[in-house]
């Protein structure tokens, strides 16, 4: 900066180690300008420092933003990778589930196939079971019959008389008659001699003429339905009765006490009770009296008053089935004739068949009995055990 035209140029240094120009040597204008420059320099310096601070702060913010950006990018990459892994795992799981569904469907198909096979097998077994049950079913309706005393089986000493007379023992033999179910269009013919039946059975067919009409009947052996034979051993106590239809209206212990109290009353026909065995589930009880004769007297009443109702009473019995025998057989003198047509009414057709099979020229003989069943009907024929050949 020039200080004047008459003086040499002098360096003006505001700050530094260069020699300084004294303020006194400057003009007032220069001094004022110098002060303004210093002031402006201080302002610029302050602005520079502020700008530098802003710059530093912006650099720090930029670095922080870069760091956050990098972290966000890393986090995004992790999320993207996780998403890829998730979809991959989901796809694998979907494939596994599809494979499992196919396996389950195949298993279900096999199980349905096995179930159908088992149903068919069960149906067949039930059919077989029903057939066997029907074949070996024991149905014996035993009618009431008077029992006749035939003699003493063994003598009882007097000192054991009271003890042995507390029970009544009985033994019954049950023999089922052999039967055969005769269907429509069939006839059973029984000859007096077995040889006649054997001759007829050797024929493949028997031409029979009835009222100018001819028909061929087929002879075959009569296979009888299975029959049974067994013994029933019966033990009956004279001191015990069985009580049934007991209403479960009270606790078990109270019902037992009420039973003992009720059956101990002589006014109702009872007597001193020795024991009460009560079964709540079945609603029954076995009552044992101290003295003989009471049980029989009570049992004859059939019913007995108990609380506000009545119960059923009977002598306490035990039975066992022994010597059970089942057998199948064929009739020795009876022949089954199949294929008979309803040319005449039942009785007339039966008479014509009997006449035909009585003639020796038709390989027949004396007929003891004959039974024909018309079409659409069935008949159960009973046979004597003596005429049956067992298998």
Summary tags:
391 residues; alpha+beta; Alpha-Beta Plaits; 6-stranded antiparallel β-sheet; 6 helices; 14 strands; 39% helix; disordered N terminus
Can you describe this structure in just a few lines?
The chain has 391 residues and is of the alpha+beta class. The protein contains six helices and 14 strands.
Describe what this molecule looks like in 3D.
The N terminus is likely disordered. The longest helix is centred in the N-terminal third of the chain and has 109 residues. The chain has six helices and 14 strands. Strands 1, 6, 7, 8, 9 and 10 form a six-stranded antiparallel sheet that branches. Strands 3, 4, 5, 11, 12 and 14 form a six-stranded antiparallel sheet that branches. It has a two-stranded antiparallel sheet with strand order 2-13. By secondary structure, the chain is α+β, with helices and mostly antiparallel strands. Helices cover 39% and strands 29% of the residues. Among the domains are: 42 residues; 114 residues; 95 residues, RRM (RNA recognition motif) domain (Alpha-Beta Plaits), CATH 3.30.70.330. The radius of gyration is 61 Å and the shape is elongated.
């Amino acid at each position: 900066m020039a200080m004047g035209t008459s003086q040499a140029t002098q360096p003006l240094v505001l700050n530094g180690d260069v020699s300084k120009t004294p303020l006194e040597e400057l003009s007032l204008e220069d001094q004022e300008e110098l002060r303004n420059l210093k002031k402006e320099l201080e302002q610029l310096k302050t602005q520079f420092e502020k700008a530098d601070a802003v710059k530093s702060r912006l650099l720090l913010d930029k670095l922080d933003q870069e760091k956050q950006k990098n972290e966000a990018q890393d986090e995004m990459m992790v999320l993207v990778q996780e998403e890829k892994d998730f979809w991959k795992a989901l796809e694998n799981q979907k494939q596994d589930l599809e494979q499992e569904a196919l396996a389950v469907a195949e298993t279900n198909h096999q199980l349905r196939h096995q179930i159908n096979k088992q149903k068919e097998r069960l149906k067949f077994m039930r059919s077989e079971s029903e057939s066997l049950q029907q074949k070996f079913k024991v149905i014996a309706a035993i009618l009431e019959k008077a029992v006749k005393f035939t003699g003493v089986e063994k003598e009882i000493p007097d000192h054991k008389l009271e003890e042995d007379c507390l029970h009544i023992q009985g033994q019954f033999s049950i023999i089922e008659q052999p039967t055969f179910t005769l269907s429509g269009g069939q006839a059973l013919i029984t000859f007096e001699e077995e040889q006649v039946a054997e001759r007829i059975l050797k024929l493949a067919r028997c031409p029979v003429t009835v009222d100018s009409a001819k028909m061929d009947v087929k002879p075959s052996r009569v296979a009888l339905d299975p029959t049974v034979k067994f013994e029933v051993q019966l033990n009956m106590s004279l001191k015990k009765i069985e009580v049934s239809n007991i209403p479960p209206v009270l606790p078990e212990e109270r019902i037992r006490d009420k039973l003992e109290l009720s059956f101990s009353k002589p006014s109702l026909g009872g007597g001193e009770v020795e024991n009460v065995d009560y079964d709540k589930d079945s609603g029954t009880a076995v009552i044992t009296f101290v003295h003989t004769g009471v049980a029989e007297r009570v049992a004859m009443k059939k019913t007995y008053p108990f609380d506000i109702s009545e119960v059923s009473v009977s002598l306490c019995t035990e039975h066992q089935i022994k010597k059970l025998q089942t057998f199948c057989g064929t009739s020795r003198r009876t022949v089954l004739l199949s294929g008979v047509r309803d040319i005449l009414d039942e009785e007339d057709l039966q008479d014509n068949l009997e006449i035909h099979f009585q003639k020796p020229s038709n390989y027949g003989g004396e007929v003891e009995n004959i039974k024909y069943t018309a079409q659409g009907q069935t008949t159960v024929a009973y046979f004597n055990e003596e005429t049956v050949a067992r298998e």
